[in-house]
Amino acid sequence: MLATNDIHKKTMQQIANEVGIDIRTIYRWKQDPDFIEYQNDIAEKVMTSFLAETYNILRNIVRGSDSERNKLRAIELVLKNQGRMTDVQKVEAKIEDDRSNEAIDAEIERLKKLLGQI
Description:
Layout: H1 5-8, H2 12-19, H3 23-29, H4 33-64, H5 68-81, H6 101-117
């Protein structure tokens, strides 16, 4: 109940009454790492089933929406979720180095000597 309370919308007191425990017990449980892990496992399972529902809704939008924009957005979400569509950012970097070849060669030699000392 606690892991899916966003669905049930019950107060902690209502949950305590329904389970037959004192509300303080719930608050103690919420501090227990084992209980937290169990609650997270339950929440993950609920989300997995919710994911199937979400895919069905997206499929219905793609196949049945009158709005081309809605269809494209649904397709984009599905493709991004599957890792088949990513946002691309173009990065350009212009590096200017006005040193001569001789200066660069000298720097390389200096670094090689430093590496040899290690």
